[in-house]
Structure formats: structure tokens, C-alpha cells
Specification:
Blueprint (H helix, E strand, L loop, with lengths): L5 E5 L5 E6 L8 E2 L29 H7 L13 E4 L14 E4 L1 H7 L4 H4 L14 H7 L7 H7 L4
Length: 157
């Protein structure tokens, strides 16, 4: 665990599996130790991996607010809610490309209708975060001592 109380978990191949505060960061893998560092204590550095591990960011309120910078995806005012672009009641999925952070006014106006039905448009195209975003959302920062592991695996960019 780092000075900030955050931890980065890795699997047997030294690839990052999860990050979190305190003990929660240890779930899903082994905590990193100095002797596990690639090249330390006789371990050969890992060869380049042509298909690096790509962590997926779990869709959550905190993560969505971070992706959309806390602003409504329709009007740009500060938002408070998750809004499904294609409502779940109409077959829309609960995934990154179908949700935006929305203010109360826009969320109420849109309700369970399609954008075309209420004559609303999106300010930005929704996307699934990747790269270092999953780590920053999980822990708030990337610890300097994690960089060698993140760079070796190619998991973040």
C-alpha cells in the first residue's frame, strides 16, 4: 500500500487487475511487492505483450460524473443524475455509450423518451473511458511507484 492508502493489485504476470483504497484494492489479485517488480531479484523483465491487458471501467455514478466533468450532457449545466440516451424501458442498455450525466431539468424533460421525441441533442458523444482513466476514477491518482508496472504491461496509456 502506498503513502496515500491506495493499492494497485496485480496478477501473476505483473499485469494490473484493480486499484482501490486500503484492503479493497487487494481484491482480484496479489498486492505488489518490491520483489515482484520486473527485473528485481533475478526476475527477467517481461517481454513486450502484443495484446496488453485493457481494464474496463465499471459504469458507476462517480465514474460517469468524472467522465462528463460533472456537466449535463444536454445543456452543459452542473448535473446530478445518470440519464440513459435510449431509455432502458425502450431497450437501451446500461453501458457507457448510452449514458450521460444530466441536470434535473434535462432529465425530467427527457424522461423515458428518445432525443428525437423531445427535440434534444447531445453536446458530446458518450464513450467508454480507457487507459489511465480507470485507475484515476478508482483511486483518484496514480502513485509514482506504480508507473513501472503500468508501463511494462501497456495497460494504461
Amino acid at each position: 500500500m502506498s503513502r496515500s492508502g491506495s493499492s494497485l493489485s496485480a496478477g501473476p504476470s505483473h499485469g494490473p487487475l484493480s486499484a482501490g483504497r486500503g484492503r479493497r484494492g487487494v481484491r482480484g489479485g496479489l498486492p505488489l511487492r518490491e520483489e515482484d517488480r520486473p527485473g528485481a531479484f533475478g526476475h527477467p523483465p517481461r517481454p513486450h505483450c502484443p495484446h496488453p491487458y485493457q481494464a474496463k471501467v465499471k459504469l458507476a455514478r462517480k465514474a460517469l460524473a468524472a467522465r462528463d466533468k460533472g456537466l449535463c450532457g444536454y445543456c452543459g449545466k452542473p448535473g446530478q443524475n445518470i440519464d440513459h440516451i435510449v431509455p432502458r424501458s425502450r431497450g437501451g442498455k446500461n453501458e457507457w455509450t448510452n449514458v450521460v450525466w444530466a441536470c434535473m431539468g434535462c432529465n425530467d424533460r427527457k424522461a423515458d423518451k428518445l432525443l428525437s421525441e423531445v427535440r434534444m441533442t447531445l453536446r458530446v458523444k458518450p464513450y467508454a473511458p480507457k487507459g489511465k482513466a480507470w485507475l484515476i476514477v478508482a483511486v483518484g491518482t496514480i502513485e509514482p511507484e506504480w508507473e513501472p508496472y503500468l508501463a511494462v504491461t501497456g495497460a494504461v496509456g
